[in-house]
Structure formats: C-alpha cells, structure tokens
Amino acid sequence: MSPDKIDDNWVQFLTERHLATLTTMRADGSPHVVPVGFTYDLAAKRVRIITFSPSQKVANALRGGRAAVSQVDGGRWLTLEGIVSATNDPTIAREACEAYARRYREPKVREDRWVIEIAVDRVLGRVAN
Is 0.90 topped by the overall pTM? Predict the structure, then answer.
C-alpha cells in the first residue's frame, strides 16, 4: 500500500519500542540484513536509522537502490520499502538522534555519525490485532 494510507493503528505500531531488520543490497547483489532501531517521519514518509561510518549498511546505502526495514511483534508486522541513501549531514544526524531518543533511548555520542534514510514508497503489513 501507499505510505499515504498509514492510519492511527500503523502510527501506534511505528512509535512503540520495537527493533527491526534493515535489508540493503551488497555490491554483489546479495541481501545484507541486520537488526536496527529506526524512526519513521510520517510527514516526510522517511525512515531514519542512525549508525556510524565504517558500517556495511552505510556502504550499501551509499550505492543507492532500494532497501526495506521490517518490524515484527507477534502477529503484527510491517515493512517499509523505498529508495535508500546515507548522509553524514550534522543537521540530519541531530534530528535523527533526537527522534531515536524519543523512541528508544539517548544514543551514544559519535564523531562518525551517519544516517541511513529510506524514502518510503511502499508499506506492507498487518497491524490490527
């Protein structure tokens, strides 16, 4: 479905404290799947994942392409898919860290902070109990 169709049930699930998996593609085309914490900006339709420069997920995101983040809790699940990118812009990193702190906890301070972003264009899942 389109991210424009996200309703209050989806928003609630996206704000609860759950970890997820991020799937990006390696240079050889194989999937790289790792556990992550993430936030979702409903207005911008954008997933943000804070990380650090030497991570494989940053290298994968810098190549572009598509990525997905998936969250599961019992029978409830969702996947947010879209075009992936990465940035070390300090303003975006600060905003991403603030959002992460609201959902999870205050992140560790890092000099090499990067943010992976997914411009969401597809949503899959089941969030109603």
Answer: yes
